[in-house]
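Reopening: structure tokens for the norvaline complex, inputs below.
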Amino acid sequence: MASKAYAPEAPVGAPPSPIDSLAGRDLCSIADFSTVEIAALLRLAHQVKADPGKFRWALDAKQMVMFFEKASLRTRLTFETAINTLGGNAIFVDQTQSPLGERESLADMSRNLERWVSVIVLRTYAHDTITEMAQYAACPVINALSDLEHPCQALADFMTIEERFGTARGLKFTYVGDGNNVCHSLMLMAAQLGAHCTIGSPKKYSPKPDLVAQARAIAAQTGGSLNIVNDPVVAVTGADAVYTDVCTSMGFEHEVTKRAPIFTPYQVNEQLMAKAAPHAVFMHCLPAHRNAEVTDAVLDGPQSVVFDQAENRMHAQKALLLLLLGGAATHTELS
Ligand code: CP
Ligand code: NVA
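Re-run output (same inputs, fresh job):
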């Protein structure tokens, strides 16, 4: 809610530590966090991965509830392993059979949940479900994928890029395929970290213009850039990282037949990967539709970092939970 947004109290020239500024906040969009906050979160994620024992009880007895309207392997299990290994506990509610807000208003749900738990994690169809819950709940609300964004995925993906390249700043990051939820969070995150991002999508499947404008405004501040093209070869040529996702996201299954031929030229195969830089990595959020948007040869090949991305979901989300729930303060130096 508005009161959860960061309101600076420190004098100009003395920005607060992200440890203070992120405590109690929501993550609905990756753009909810500042460039400084994201960089700090990623630094903490690397620390957590290198020394998990240091954070073993940092969220002792904290309760995290998860309501998922859509299927999940990675997101559910990495949030559960994250909170469990920080000393807290996860409560999973399968919401696939009835949308959130149907039995009870989101406002009333929020006013109940905030009395019992420290954080609410939501996977939804409508993005508004997440922002509305965040508006009413006093505790942090985390977007674990909506039709508009997948911010936790972007955190893990750019953590993986930092592992491989040291920094995302100045990196040529290319996303090929549907301008979907994953694409939106990636292009916003790339902008925040000063990367040069190119999206190669079929006409009518480009990312949403308002999010493109938002990402470009952020990139103008960070020295990054965002280029939207329709030609997959143009998009991939010279890229340091090539990313793709399914052509048909959850909730759009009725469009599978229509979409398949439109996305065929955007398949990431060995010929397309050969246009990228020789050191380029291949990335995918998973689950992959093998030999649809990506071939087996690329997905299982030496350039693929997809399982590092999947592992890093857990580490990045541990850092996220530590910061939002105030568990980082006594365990780390983020300056
Ligand atoms: N990448 C991702 O979010 O995977 P799941 O849908 O399995 O959670
Ligand atoms: N774009 C995909 C991502 C799954 C993790 C979907 O929304 O289904």
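Residues 72-75, 145, 153, 285-287 surround phosphoric acid mono(formamide)ester (ligand 1) (CB under 6 Å). The radius of gyration is 19 Å. Marking as resolved unless the reporter disagrees.
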